[in-house]
Amino acid sequence: MHNKTLRSHRKRLNGHRACLLWFTGLSGSGKSTIAGLVEEKLHTMGKRTYLLDGDNVRHGLNRDLGFSDQDRVENIRRIGEMSRLFVDAGMITLAAFISPFRADRNAVRERMATGDCRSTPPMSLQRRPNCISSMTA
Questions:
Q1: CB 38 within 8 A of CB 21
Q2: Cβ(24)–Cβ(117) under 8 Å?
């Protein structure tokens, strides 16, 4: 973040801290569904949110990418950069992607300001989603 003053103004204006919530798991595991439920709950709480998932990223920004390992790495890199911009703008950003490579997720985390990124355990390791009721600003 190049201007901490703007960040504190956005936080005050929004009434909440910006962050990135990263949901990862296998195809069809419910990442986007759970992220969507979390987004709905946050929205009803008056929080400014945006959900990024394969549907709204692969058909636009990343439409030139396939599913090779190299393309998957670039897909997550672009999503990470876009997520960082959304967080910088003061949004609670939810990202739901397969993101199979730990190194790529770590690279996204390292580009975020300290405390701006929260990751969920892989969906295959979760027994049930309990993040909605415990979400606070």
A1: yes
A2: no
b/e map 69-101, b = 16+ CB within 10 Å: eeebbbbbeebbebbbebbbebbbbbbbbbbee
3-state secondary structure 23-39: EECCCCCCHHHHHHHHH
State pTM to two decimals. 0.76
- Identified catalytic residue from 27, 29, 99, 133: 99
- C-beta of residue 10 within 8 angstroms of C-beta of residue 89: yes
pLDDT grade for 135, boundaries at 50, 70 and 90: very low
Q: Count of alpha carbons within 13 Å of 24, Cβ hemisphere only?
A: 17
- Rounded distance between C-alpha atoms, residue 23 and residue 35, angstroms: 7
Q: Is 99 a catalytic residue?
A: yes
Backbone angles phi, psi at 100, to 5 degrees: -75, -15
CA distances from residue 82 to 35, 46, 57, 124 in whole angstroms, order as listed: 17, 23, 10, 26
The number of angstroms, rounded, from the C-alpha of 68 to the middle of its chain's C-alpha atoms is 22
Taking only the tens place, the pLDDT of each residue in 88-121 is 888 899 999 888 788 888 888 888 776 665 555 5
